[in-house]
Amino acid sequence: xxxxxxxxxxxxxxxxxxxxxxxxxxxxxxxxxxxxxxxxxxxxxxxxxxxxxxxxxxxxxxxxxxxxxxxxxxxxxxxxxxxxxxxxxxxxxxxxxxxxxxxxxxxxxxxxxxxxxxxxxxxxxxxxxxxxxxxxxxxxxxxxxxxxxxxxxxxxxxxxx
Length: 161
What we know:
By secondary structure, the protein is mostly beta strands. The chain folds into two domains: 5-85, Beta Barrel (Elongation Factor Tu (Ef-tu), domain 3); 96-156, PRC-barrel domain (SH3 type barrels, Roll). The protein has helices at residues 30-34, 68-72, 96-99, and strands at residues 5-15, 20-25, 38-41, 44-54, 57-62, 78-82, 103-105, 111-120, 125-130, 136-140, 146-149, 152-155.
């Protein structure tokens, strides 16, 4: 598994006694996860048999996970797919995973740090920048404040104070 992986969900625990699991989704919803029939839990390849909305996330069944004990053994596992399996993006779109690790500079070329996190609390994306001194700052990922340009984030340093 040398290709970069993108995490789409985490297993929250077993659901019932038949082998289903509760998922916390990091994707847009159950429908975006359904397009992937194979998911990785670490190095283990899982085949998705069914998926439905439930419990604020989703309920899934994987081939070979046949009882509560097997389902519970997946608790805490992150479910991922290879980056190449994600749908292509339109102009101006991005995946959060693609922003992680990007350099962050000012318009004048001053190094401001590196993107270490992306969050969305409902009002738009927020990027977390780790500055050269190790301190971190969260700034809105909005035009004029922080822009994605040529494989880097160009940010207004005033928002990193």
